[in-house]
Design brief:
- The two termini are 27 Å apart.
- The protein has four helices and five strands.
- It has two domains: 44 residues, no CATH class; 95 residues, K homology (KH) domain (GMP Synthetase, Chain A, domain 3).
- Helix 2 crosses helix 3.
- The strands form two sheets. The chain has a three-stranded antiparallel beta sheet with strand order 1-2-3. A two-stranded antiparallel ribbon has the order 4-5.
- Helices cover 34% and strands 31% of the residues.
- By secondary structure, the protein is α+β, with helices and mostly antiparallel strands.
Length: 140
């Protein structure tokens, strides 16, 4: 399975603007800029989208692991906080923290913690955030 997303950027880093789109059409030409990424201006940014992907991926992985252990959640609420900070003369995503609140009938806390830990480690986005990144780059 392969999913696509795209970004377009025009102008300089601080004064330029760009748009983000997903292949599914869930996001179409969503604007982003230096100000939405680094200065708290209203709008989206790559780290916010990574956080949404991580929270969504974890919640689905946790649901699958719960199902395998004989539990069904009434609700899994996950918030991901992505940390972007200066590193080695540039910027790096250094952490993703998951805050999880779940309602799962019949589960005890030790089992809940164990299964949540397995979901955190096994979620594909968790694996990506600790992966080697490769690239093919071409000039048009």
């Amino acid at each position: 399975m392969k999913q696509k997303a795209s970004a377009q950027w025009q102008g300089s880093l601080k004064e330029g603007t760009g748009t983000l789109s997903t292949g599914s059409g869930a996001l179409t030409d969503k604007p982003y800029s230096f100000k939405t990424r680094f200065e708290g201006e209203q709008g989206t940014n790559p780290e916010e989208l990574i956080g949404a992907a991580h929270a969504g991926c974890f919640s689905m992985a946790f649901s699958m692991i719960l199902d395998g252990a004989g539990f069904t959640s009434d609700k899994i609420d996950t918030q991901a906080t992505i940390t972007l900070e200066p590193k080695d003369g540039g910027f790096a995503i250094t952490a993703s923290h998951l805050d999880v609140t779940a309602t799962i009938p019949g589960i005890d806390d030790a089992t809940f913690q164990d299964l949540a830990g397995k979901a955190k480690a096994g979620c594909p986005v968790s694996k990506l955030l600790n992966a080697t990144i490769t690239m093919d780059a071409k000039l048009a």
